[in-house]
Amino acid sequence: MGLSLAIAGKGGIGKTTFAALVIRALGELKIRPALAVDADPNSNLAEALGVAPGMPLAHIREQGSSPEGSPASGIGRARAVEDEIQRAIVEAQGFDLLAMGRPEGPRCYCYVNNLLRRSLDLLAANYAAVVMDNEAGMEHLSRRTTNKVDFLIVVTDCTLPAFRAAERVLALSRELPIHVGRRMVLVNRARPDQAADEIGRRLAAREVARLPDVPQDSLVEQAGAVGRDVFSLPADNPAVRAVYHVVQTLIALHEG
């Protein structure tokens, strides 16, 4: 498998828009096909990418579990899960999309989650890049799409609450049963009058690198407010250019 990114951070910080812009940049850099994974139960990544949402994988998980907690039986269940995942994929120009869906309910999901992991691991190997847009709590990251994440990108802004949330995400990531190659922080909606230097000082005391900032951009915010996808933004848009530079940085690090 190629480049794998997991994007996390405080709710409302702009993770989904950033993830969609990363997918756009990967396509422009000819890193394709990419697999976009919407691991947030709110499931807004499809809209940001301008595609119709597909069947969430939570539906497959529910179908494969019984109220009593015993797995659905029958020869070929693993192949059936793989087939269902293939039907859940939304295909687009240069990328595919999968939605994880809602969190687990009261049933026992160990069996079907193992099938999902195995099938998604095999699926992810077919892509040049995998980009996961996680919910704030990162529960879905522990049900990973791969055995390894090259980059965990924690999105924050220059406010103290957002940075504290980023610190909690970073701490939680060290407790999850996955391997993270590099932990990195990205300051989104950065403005010259905000205390970006204070973020730098705080990061210097921790084992985490900082990606180039993405500036606050009214055009990006307007597009999100009215449901326009990131591909509608002009190529010379400051946020689009900034994310393009971020992806170039990640590729260089990955290849280095």
Summarize the structure.
The protein is 40% helix and 18% strand. The chain has nine helices and eight strands. Helix 6 links the parallel strand 6 (148-156) and strand 7 (179-187).
What does this structure look like?
There is one protein chain. The protein is an alpha/beta fold and 256 residues long. The protein has one domain (3-255): Rossmann fold, CATH 3.40.50.300. It contains 9 helices and 8 strands. The protein has helices at residues 15-28, 45-49, 57-63, 77-88, 110-124, 160-173, 196-204, 218-226, 238-255, and strands at residues 3-9, 34-39, 90-91, 95-99, 129-134, 148-156, 179-187, 209-210. An 8-stranded mixed sheet has the order 3-4-2-5-1-6-7-8, with helices on both faces. The longest helix has 18 residues, at 238-255.
CATH top level is Alpha Beta
Taking Cα atoms only, what radius of gyration do you get, to the nearest Å?
Answer: 18 Å
- What structural class do helix, strand and pairing data support? alpha/beta
For the report, how would you describe the main beta sheet?
8 strands, mixed
What is the H-and-E element order? EHEHHHEEHEEHEHEHH
> Shape, please?
globular
Low-pLDDT ranges: 66-71
Distance, first to last CA: 16 Å
On the 0 to 100 scale, the average pLDDT is 81
**Domain unit count:** 1
**Strand tally:** 8
CATH topology: Rossmann fold
**CATH homologous superfamily annotation:** P-loop containing nucleotide triphosphate hydrolases
Name of the CATH architecture: 3-Layer(aba) Sandwich
The number of helical segments is: 9
Can you give the helix content as a percent range? 40-55%
Strand content: 15-25%
Strand arrangement across the biggest beta sheet: 3-4-2-5-1-6-7-8
